[in-house]
Amino acid sequence: MKFTLGWLKQHLDTDADLERIASTMTMLGLEVESIVDPAKNLQPFTVAHVISAEQHPDADRLRVCKVDTGKEILQVVCGAPNARAGMKGVFAPVGTTIPGTGLLLKPSKIRGQESNGMLCSARELQLGEDHDGIIDLPADTPVGVPVADVLGANDPVIEIKITPNRGDCLGVRGIARDLTAAGLGVLKPEPKAESTAAFKSPIAWRRSFSAETSDACPVVAGRYFRGLRNGPSPEWLQNRLKAIGLRPISALVDVTNFFTFDLNRPLHVFDAGKIKGDLTMRLARSGETVMALDGRTYELDGEMTVIADEQGVQAIGGIMGGEISGCSDQTTEMFLEAAYFDPIRTATTGRKLGIQSDARYRFERGIDPHSCISGVEAATRLILELCGGEASDIVQAGDVPADDRVYQLRLSRIPGLAGFDVDSGESKRILQALGFDVSGDGSTWQVAPPSWRPDIIGEADLVEEVVRVHGYDSIPSVPMPRIAAVTTPARTIQQRRPGHARRALAARGLVEAVTWSFMAGKDAALFAPVDDAMRLANPMSADLDVMRATIAPNLIDAAARNIARGMRDVALFEVGPQYAGNRPEDQATVAAGIRSGLAQPRQWTGGHRPVDAFDAKADIQAAVQALGMDPEQPQIDAKAAPGWYHPGRSGALRLGPQIIGWFGEIHPAILAHYRIEQPTVGFELFIDRVPMPKQARSGKARPPLKLLPLQPIERDFAFLVADDVTADAVVKAARAAERSLISRVAVFDLYAGKGVEPGRKSLAISVTIQPVGKTLTEAEIEAIAGKIVANVAKATGASLRG
Amino acid sequence: MDQVEQTRSEALKALGEASSLEALENVRVATLGKKGSLTGLLKQLGTLPVEERKTFGAKVNVVKAEFEQAIEARKASLQGAALDKKLAEERIDVTLPARPQPQGSIHPISQTIDEIVAIFGDMGFVWADGPDIEDDWHNFTALNIPPEHPARQMHDTFYLPPRADGTPMLLRTHTSPVQVRTMVGQKPPIRIIVPGRTFRMDSDITHTPMFHQVEGLVIDEASHMGHLKGCLQEFAKAYFEVSELPIRFRPSYFPFTEPSAEVDIGCSWQNGELRIGAGESWLEILGCGMVHPKVLEYCGVDSTRYQGFAFGMGIERIAMLKYGIPDLRTFFESDLRWLRHYGFGALDVPSLTGGLSR
């Protein structure tokens, strides 16, 4: 909402300066977004007399002017076609920054001719769009005076943000009323209605609605004018409109725009000569069309309110008038409309038609339904003053809807909600200044809000009005009462787990990213069929049109983008949601990671190597461990990773029937799609599926530590096994050979090639035997070794390597 | 010079000339070995007259002790020299770089959430969360946002196809639906903090289609705007790690609170750089208010008995303010350079007692 200081003072009698007015507005909830004082911008610019304008000797389009600034006579080279001897223009001296271009003027030579300063166009001064020539001031304008005074551009323009509940402040008078309540001055009385009916209106209002749709436009008023002389409106009115960015059109149209902003009272003027018969408020017939004032033709449906005559639709109610019956400079007979349109229906219609207008903006926030008659009267005053002529009686159809809002205000609720008390006299004064009707005494009042405040719907709203106007600065700062003497955890153990996984992965050298919860549907389809329930109905773009069913694609995409930027070794992870459906339980928290390029960078000690599936396995195991689970506990299922992993180089972590995560090389076809041409591995761990550690269930105490006094013994074995025998099978068989004594089995070598027959591999394990109770004799150790060899051979077909 | 003195001086001379441990051993053998010169002198003892034996023996033993001491000293000196030589040969170029250790990092959003939770946790708030995909009742209706409210329209909210029963589904536009879920699910008193992902159809320099909010909700029988102000003031001071931080409430409007306020903190601009703390300017950081009685009623909370406040702020915004991050969009670009520059160490877990940040 824009207005000027001068406009505000038309309604508000105040001594306060602009700064105090602005800070008061902000503290009333009318947040000041900007204050532009055109006089400040125009300060260096003065009126100058062009004494002579000669053709530039070396440039067709330039003129060399002698300019009298009132202080001195200067030479200025000017390119404007309208520069001529004898004119009065706007002069900018050297050292001025031109508001419209941001350029600093310096003494210069233009094609060899000295130029000291500049004659300005309207656009250069940000006074308008005109850039066809320099500003041409009236011949009697005094030379040397500040341009701001001459142009009447000395009225600061204030722009405030209006919250959706404060439609009443979309009129300058509403703002003035709030300021009055805040003690900043006195609201000037509205001029009395004086115009009397000179004749009976030849046009009557009709309303044609069913009982259910009657609220679309419950009341409308109007008046017929004749003998008018339309034309440009006076300078004061044009300046008001221009200051807030509106284009003056003609006196009649300017009057409607003026009251839209002055009293929050949208109006419409029909050229009465173009109206046939009476005007009817009704819903449009489906398929009816109207050409609106913006020159576009709109097709209407049966839910939209229109104003129609015998010929058809003449205006879209509350949104925009029709082009055909609009007023022109030739209009001498005019019919004025002031109605109340339903906010919701107006908003819906405006949205469907895609029309933004000042009228729609106001009706959809709710204007004062009592303003139809008063609006007609206010407009009549100005129309007769500007255009002459005479006015008919006021015609009306329908009635102002009944407003029976009365709310109880218990004064104890003011400190109860706000935390501080406001004196009851002060509370009453505030409410009354805002137009509320207050009755009752003692500690409970009955309060009726004014018709222009549809947002007030209960006691809490009344408390807010009192507190807001009294000042939020009075709210004390009170510490929250403590719940416990010693702080208890804010997160449950379950809620802490994503954080544990996050910090464990970061400690492993992975960098945390946060990627979109959505992704491109065409990419998602490469991973898994996309559930239609997970497609956005109104995506921002095709790149972000489905909810991600897995985090992997976004991380692979992020890796690809980093590689493309030259960051070739990527280690990224994310702990975040994935979505399997639209129920709350379909959302899962996942820790996912991606590594690409080298696991260890090239460096002088050697040992650089590309990433492989075991980097991803180490990552997921670290995350599992961070969640309090033994990372060796889940079975590794080599066949259960999903299709975006390499089928032979991936695995899933399985706990019985439940899969808690997977890892491995990313499938080459996926990498090709993302244009990644280097080894890339990843993992995904479903945090919610990892069982809670025992300590979380049964207490913090750990099982007692059993330190055995006897030295453990290590024995190494190298087995030859078929290629498809897994290391896991060998390790398990070795362990099973003597469960009570074998404490650990570790694979320490894997070899295939020369010396090992094709189709077989050599797998070397180290077995730790932990004697219990007594030391083992060499013979006993040999017996265990024999059992290990026999068990592994039996389980896997292995033979001991010679 | 007698025989003893001569043997002594010869032995010490040989000792002095021994330049290696091997030569030293030879000198030792030549002096103290079976056929050594001093051993030879001792062997003569038996041949001497009884009265000379004692003095001769004592004399030889003094020389022997002296020689043994000298040989130990010489040995230590030669060993030291040998070690020095060996060490000199083992020299490496210590200016070579150490083996690289990959450095991981925590995203500023996660870190900021941890900081926020540390502070509000100390004020008795507990973590709550809810789904990103919501129905319109939790996201709008129960928060007193009627169907015709502009926020419900397509241009603000991402919609998904409705559920089979016709329930409109959407991506939550704020973390406030978790207020509703909490109040529906548990009895007051309530103090919750709700960090999470939120979604709005907006994309420009200051908006991204996904961002993070943190919601706070307090419901009991007595909490008022004074508590709200105190709570937020203490939060802002602790979060920005400044001892003095003015805070300003301005009237505003949200459908789910009444009265409502926007909250500014004090700041100043020094050489184009923002300083949080007492200063000449104000900076908006969040919106808040007393929970609207209608919202309480929607959630089945008796509004004649219970009241409380709610607030919501943008996590990226306060992270940007604290850590000087200039552009919101970069939070989601997964650029490793950015993540490493603005990220935090894995071990830097914020805590009030240990410090929120380095």
Task: Give structural notes.
The complex is a heterodimer of chains A (802) and B (358). In chain A, the strands form 12 sheets. Chain A has a 7-stranded mixed sheet with strand order 27-30-31-37-36-35-34, sandwiched between helices. A 5-stranded antiparallel sheet of chain A has the order 6-5-4-7-10. In chain A, helix 12 crosses helix 13 and helix 20 crosses helix 21. The model of chain A has no long low-confidence stretch (mean pLDDT 93). Chain A has 802 residues and is α+β, with helices and mostly antiparallel strands. In chain B, strands 1, 5, 6, 7, 8, 9, 10 and 11 form an 8-stranded mixed sheet that branches. In chain B, helix 1 runs parallel beside helix 4, helix 2 packs antiparallel against helix 4 and helix 5 crosses helix 10. Chain B starts with a helix and ends in a 16-residue tail after the last helix. Chains A and B meet through helix 2, helix 8, helix 11, helix 13 and helix 14 of A and helix 5, strand 1, strand 3, strand 5 and helix 8 of B.
- Rg of chain A over CA atoms, rounded to whole Å, is 41 Å
Shape of chain B: rod-shaped
Describe the strand arrangement of the main beta sheet of chain A, using strand numbers: 27-30-31-37-36-35-34
* Strand coverage percent of chain A: 25-35%
Structural class of chain B: alpha+beta
Anisotropy-based shape of chain A: elongated
Strand content of chain B: 15-25%
Could you outline the blueprint of secondary structure elements for this entry?
The complex is a heterodimer of chains A (802) and B (358).
Chain A: E1 2-4, H1 5-9, E2 12-13, H2 18-28, E3 31-36, H3 38-42, E4 46-55, E5 63-68, E6 73-78, E7 88-92, E8 108-110, E9 113-115, E10 118-119, H4 147-151, E11 157-161, H5 172-181, E12 186-187, E13 205-208, E14 219-226, H6 235-243, H7 251-262, E15 268-271, E16 279-283, E17 289-291, E18 297-299, E19 305-309, E20 312-316, E21 320-321, E22 334-340, H8 343-353, H9 358-363, H10 371-387, E23 390-398, E24 407-410, H11 413-418, H12 424-433, E25 437-439, E26 444-448, H13 459-470, H14 493-507, E27 511-512, E28 518-519, H15 521-527, E29 546-547, H16 552-564, E30 570-579, E31 587-596, E32 598-600, E33 609-610, H17 613-626, E34 635-637, E35 645-655, E36 658-666, H18 668-673, E37 680-686, H19 694-698, E38 713-722, H20 727-736, E39 742-751, E40 760-769, H21 778-796, E41 799-800
Parallel strand pairs in A: 13-16, 27-30
Antiparallel strand pairs in A: 1-11, 2-12, 3-11, 4-5, 4-7, 5-6, 7-10, 8-9, 14-22, 14-23, 15-22, 16-19, 17-18, 19-20, 20-21, 24-26, 25-26, 28-29, 30-31, 31-37, 32-33, 34-35, 35-36, 36-37, 38-40, 38-41, 39-40
Helix pairs in contact in A: 5-12, 6-7, 7-10, 12-13, 14-17, 20-21
Chain B: H1 3-17, H2 21-32, H3 37-44, H4 50-89, H5 108-122, E1 126-127, E2 133-135, H6 136-139, E3 159-160, E4 169-171, H7 177-185, E5 190-199, E6 210-220, H8 225-240, E7 247-254, E8 257-270, E9 273-276, E10 281-291, H9 293-298, E11 307-314, H10 315-323, H11 336-342
Parallel strand pairs in B: 1-5
Antiparallel strand pairs in B: 2-4, 3-4, 5-6, 6-11, 7-8, 8-9, 8-10, 10-11
Helix pairs in contact in B: 1-4, 2-4, 5-10
